[in-house]
Design a protein that fits this description.
Length: 173
């Protein structure tokens, strides 16, 4: 009976880990698709274009906010939110425990959380290359670093660091 309970516990643990990582993958895929078809990349937030080139592999070098215009001409902003707290003020909402992070997507004046409460986003950094007027010969792209942990069980919170690069694709008309 003890072995059977251990197997059930391990199965629940692996299912919880899988669900959380699938959610993180979905959030990053959604970000990638929106950024890939967007324009006017702005590292650090604001209007117009703004590059922030990476001086090295340090987490501290990137910007915590990234804004752009999506393919539907809406201004989109990605940033790390912290729970609990209102989404508009940079929080994750009431469901998130105090101090736990999430990825927040702001579209015009509405906000949505892109990650589930099982994922604690501790670091979210952006770098933008080729969006400024000075870099006209470079295809604009965004580098994103995401770090955090997955709440697989009450005692196990494996950490992760993910890096991805997204190249802007002009829409074919």
């Amino acid at each position: 009976m003890s072995a059977f309970l251990t197997v059930i516990s391990a199965d629940r643990h692996s299912r919880g880990l899988r669900i959380a990582t699938d959610n993180l993958n979905l959030a990053l895929e959604d970000m990638s698709r929106r950024i890939k078809t967007g324009t006017q990349y702005n590292c650090g937030g604001g209007t117009g274009t703004n590059d922030c080139v990476d001086p090295g592999p340090s987490w501290g070098a990137g910007k915590e906010i990234f804004e752009f215009i999506d393919q539907e001409d809406d201004r989109i902003k990605y940033q790390r939110g912290v729970g609990p707290g209102p989404l508009v003020g940079g929080g994750c909402g009431a469901v998130w425990p105090s101090g736990q992070g999430c990825i927040v997507r702001v579209k015009d004046f509405s906000s949505a959380v892109a990650t589930s409460p099982e994922i604690d986003i501790k670091d979210l950094k952006f770098w933008v290359y080729g969006s400024s007027e000075a870099a006209k010969n470079i295809q604009p792209f965004v580098r994103i670093l995401v770090g955090g942990s997955v709440k697989a069980s009450a005692t196990d919170n494996p950490e992760f660091q993910i890096e991805t690069m997204i190249t802007q694709r002009e829409m074919d008309l």
